[in-house]
Design a protein that fits this description.
Layout (H helix, E strand, L loop, with lengths): L1 E6 L5 H9 L11 H6 L14 E6 L5 E6 L6 H12 L6 E5 L6 H12 L3 H33 L3
Parallel strand pairs: 1-3, 1-4
Antiparallel strand pairs: 2-3
Length: 155
C-alpha cells in the first residue's frame, strides 16, 4: 500500500505524521525542538516542492509512506490522485491522509513565517509551539491511518 500524508506545505504536519507512522519519533512523548528539526523534510521545503510526492520510507508491514504539500488545493489534489490510481487499477493500494484538520493556528502562522516569508528565526519557535500543541492529535491520526492500512492489506 502507498500512504500519502498531505498538508499545505508538506513540511510540518505531514512530515511529523509520516515520521510517527515510520516510528522515527516516539509517539509516547513530546518531541524536542532538535528532534523535530532532525526529521527528514521538516521545515525544509521550498516552492519547488509543492505537489511533489516524497518518499519518507517503508513501515514494518511494507507500506510505502510519502509526504506531499498541496498548497490551497485542499482535498482536490487527493481526489485527483485517487482518480489516477482508480484508472490504473490500484485505488485500493492508495491511502491519502489529510493532516490539515490536526493543524492549529500556531503551526499555520509559524509555517507561513518560516517557509513562505523565509523568517525562520521568527517562524520556527511559533511553529515548534504549535507542533507540540498538535502532537497528540497527529499521533491519533497516525494510529487511525495505521489501522486503515492494516485493514486494507488484510492484516
Amino acid at each position: 500500500m502507498k500512504i500519502i500524508y498531505h498538508c499545505f506545505g508538506g513540511s510540518h504536519s505531514s512530515v511529523l505524521a509520516a515520521s510517527l507512522h515510520l516510528k522515527l519519533i516516539d509517539k509516547e512523548r513530546l518531541p524536542s525542538k532538535c528532534e523535530l528539526i532532525a526529521l527528514p523534510f521538516f521545515d525544509k521545503t521550498n516552492n519547488d516542492d509543492f505537489g511533489a510526492i516524497r518518499l519518507m520510507g517503508n513501515d514494518e508491514f511494507g507500506n510505502q509512506v510519502f509526504v506531499m504539500g498541496k498548497k490551497s488545493m485542499g482535498n482536490r489534489y487527493a481526489t485527483m490522485l485517487e482518480g489516477v490510481a482508480e484508472i490504473l487499477g490500484g485505488r485500493d493500494q492508495l491511502l491519502m491522509v489529510n493532516c490539515m484538520n490536526r493543524v492549529n493556528w500556531f503551526m499555520k502562522l509559524g509555517g507561513f513565517t518560516s517557509r513562505r516569508i523565509g523568517a525562520v528565526s521568527i517562524g520556527r519557535p511559533i511553529l515548534e509551539k504549535g507542533t507540540v500543541d498538535a502532537f497528540f492529535k497527529l499521533v491519533n491520526l497516525v494510529e487511525i491511518t495505521r489501522l486503515k492500512a492494516m485493514a486494507g492489506a488484510g492484516l
